[in-house]
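Morning!

This is the sequence you dropped in the shared folder:
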Amino acid sequence: MTKCSILISLFACSSLIQAKQKPNVIVILTDDQGYQDLGCYGSPLIKTPCIDKMALEGLKLTDFYQSSSISSPSRAGLLTGKLNSNNGVKVVYFPEEKGLPKTEITLAEALKTQGYKTACFGKWHLGDLKGYLPTDHGFDEYFGIPYSNDMYIAPSQQFASNVNLRETYNLEQAKADQEFVRTTKNKEAIIVKLGGKCPLMQNDEIVEYPCDLATTTQRYFEHAIQFVEKNKKQPFFMYITPAMPHVPLFASEKFRGKSKRGLYGDVVEELDWNVGQLLAALDKNKLSENTIVIFTSDNGPWLTKKQDGGSADPLRDGKFSIYEGGVRVPCLIRWKGTIPKGVISNEIVSGIDVFPTIMHLAGVEKLSHKVDGTDISKFLKKPSIKMNNEYVYVKYGKVSGVRKGEWVYLDDTGKKQSVNGDAPELFNLKQDISQQKNVFNDNMTRVSDMKKILEKYINTKVAN
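The structure's back. Tokens below.
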């Protein structure tokens, strides 16, 4: 089935829910924010009263996972509802590289068939070439940096006629940076010279170069609030993806030096304040009871950055790892009047569940293409439901482990622990949340059961 026919089928199978009844959807996806880096998840030094309030007004998930411990694959998993072994995104994309396959259906594309207005504000990281940008994947508008904020301008990106050139740059100098990237073969040399000099794009053109990274968080949320005001009479989907707290860290003057956790804490507290402004805008426009707001992170913290990185305590490891600290992240969901207040759940939920769940709530009774995620809409409305979900650990496109209940079996962690290659591991998270004791040799029956579950995912391919 072609992408076009799938989208037509999605439109045709929509239920007769009136447009005004379809819930608005906002996904806020931070970058490299660790499991502990919110007040409501136990941060001792970072204060996040606005996001903590989301937990009081909705659902806090203690066992929420992204589909990858690195940026591009985790974003692809959330937007397509598929494991990275099935959606074609296995690695982090650099400038001038192809991105999310054009055949994949994103949540934005699918929601457009249901009458939604769509917008992406922030980091994209699923391709910056023509044909791979947010506006090519279902978003009506885009404002942000097309990849990580430690990257650089790409040769083929076009400048808007009214581009704002900063730091004494003129257009000739900006194009010289593009020529340097085009002609330099060594990626490390490019990063040394231009790393962090990112282009800020509006739709498919550069509108600012180099981007003023200290003001991006505020500007993304300002765009989001304007989008709410402009589209409050029709259903909308916003995907807000701040670059923070990915290094290099930048906070605006208002928040710089205010947190007890240093610059990292400053940027998280600035995120928190802006989330509060957006939630207040929903309340002001009487949209909170018809808007699902999901706050989460793309993967775990960049621990090697030390003070500039976050914390996954009490979980093991962080970004790049398929131990819990790499893929388990904070997640709060608020939908006033529908999701019960102040619920804390340890049910296993994943970023790939967002796609089928939102599509069901938007009125699509049955998806026209296969996804790996699970529709959890009944659970959201009644979080006491036991779902018995599984989570699949995928690294660089390879199915490498599985979680079932309190047990985690990792067939391939990427850590070469024996002369024969990677040593398989088994952990009981209820007894050992920090994954310090490999109990593989003591539970061979359990290992056999977990291997059977893992094989199911290894042998299952999902295609459009």
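Headline: DSSP finds twelve helices and 17 strands in the chain.

More detail when I'm at my desk.
O.
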